[in-house]
TrEMBL record:
Keywords: Oxidoreductase. CDD domains: AKR_AtPLR-like (cd19093). Gene3D superfamilies: NADP-dependent oxidoreductase domain. InterPro entries: AKR (IPR020471), AKR_Detox_Biosynth (IPR050523), Aldo/ket_reductase_CS (IPR018170), NAD(P)_OxRdtase_dom_sf (IPR036812), NADP_OxRdtase_dom (IPR023210). GO terms for molecular function: oxidoreductase activity. SUPFAM superfamilies: NAD(P)-linked oxidoreductase. It comes from the Eukaryota. This is NADP-dependent oxidoreductase domain-containing protein. The keyword Transport does not apply. Residues 42-334 form the NADP-dependent oxidoreductase domain. The keyword Oxidoreductase applies.
Length: 347
């Protein structure tokens, strides 16, 4: 069933605005996170910008810069970029910092929304100090005075959710971040973080989880519905199954073993890919657009990767149309539910 949009939960004015798509997502569609950030219905995930996991080399920067320029065009409709301090050991943030400076020097009018993440290793115990120190490092690399969305990268911290929430609240109070979110949190953990931040008068903006046609767990577990109930936007990472749903790979040509999320043998995905290919031909859209459109239909904001302008254009083709309920049912008959993990993915 396609999730219809809803406005902010009753008696929760801090969550004002629409947090997921109503009807057809377009280049003009804007969603509102925590009543503060105006973002496109899909984002660009930048893990591959500077990270050896994706075989990044410095000479690739020119293609990334061209991708950035293409997305800075108002007609692209995408203004939202997600990174993290751990991506390329800070190099992803450095690259975005260079691109932001470039856009400013060129007088670009589009103001991108930048999200980054704090990695709460279990041995980080001194809150809020460790979080604020990491945040300032991210700000230096990004070259910004304030971060739009600052997220806890995973529920791997030993200190309680309430202690981490107090640290996030301190970042807001010091004017270092506009909004705060989490990633890989379960429904129960999201509820706790939401309540802990609410004591400071702060709305939890988002929970970023792996969600795609080969990991429907966040929907089937009730996590997406719970987030919506709380006014928390759901950001979907790996919406293309780390390339497995792009049409580029097959049982005979599998992706790199480094791509560990939803690491199913490509042979198991053959029935799903066949349905995706059929739908893509019917809509005259690339398979990537089918995968991304599905994720938007389920009430989440996909974070699709793009390392060159062509990939960015393919991602953008997920806008301007919507899968039918019948097509969604066809896809879900052969989609995979997946599961959660004990360490990293609780949601």
């Amino acid at each position: 069933m396609v999730i219809a949009t809803d406005s902010a939960p009753v008696n929760n004015p801090q969550a004002e605005g629409i947090i997921y798509v109503q009807g057809v997502p377009t280049t003009e569609t804007r969603l509102t996170l925590a009543g503060t950030l105006s973002v496109s219905p899909m984002a660009i995930g930048t893990w591959a910008w500077g990270d050896a996991t994706w075989n990044y080399k410095p000479e690739m920067f020119d293609d990334i810069a061209k991708t950035w320029d293409a997305l800075q065009d108002e007609s692209s409709g995408i203004n939202f970029f997600d990174t993290a301090e751990i991506y390329g050991k800070g190099e992803s943030e450095n690259i975005i910092g260079r691109l932001l400076k470039k856009s400013k020097e060129e007088g670009k009018t589009v103001q991108p929304v930048i999200a980054t993440k704090f990695l709460p290793w279990p041995w980080k115990l001194s809150y809020p100090g460790c979080l604020l120190s990491a945040l300032k490092g991210s700000m230096d690399r990004l070259g910004v005075d304030i971060v739009d969305l600052y997220q806890i990268h995973g529920p791997i911290h030993i200190r309680s959710i309430e202690v981490v929430a107090d640290a996030l609240a301190e970042a807001v109070k010091q004017g270092l971040v506009r909004t705060v979110g989490v990633s890989n949190y379960s429904a129960e953990q999201t509820v706790r973080m939401h309540a802990a931040l609410a004591k400071h008068g702060i709305q939890l903006a988002s929970n970023q989880v792996e969600f795609s046609l080969i990991r429907r767990y966040p929907e089937t577990s009730g996590l997406i519905a719970k987030c919506h109930e709380l006014g928390v936007a759901v950001l979907a990472y790996s919406p293309l199954g780390q390339g497995r749903l792009s049409g580029k790979y097959s049982a005979e040509n599998p992706p790199s073993a480094k791509r560990r999320f939803s690491n199913y043998p490509m042979k198991e995905l053959t029935p799903l890919l066949a349905v995706m290919e059929k739908i893509s031909k019917e809509h005259d859209k690339p398979m990537t657009a089918v995968a991304l459109n599905y994720v938007m239909c389920k009430g989440t904001i996909p974070l699709g990767g793009a390392r060159n302008p062509e990939q960015a254009r393919q991602n953008a083709q997920a806008l301007g149309w919507r899968l039918t309920e019948q097509e969604i049912e066809e896809l879900e008959k052969v989609a995979l539910v997946g599961d959660k993990g004990t360490f990293w993915q609780h949601g």
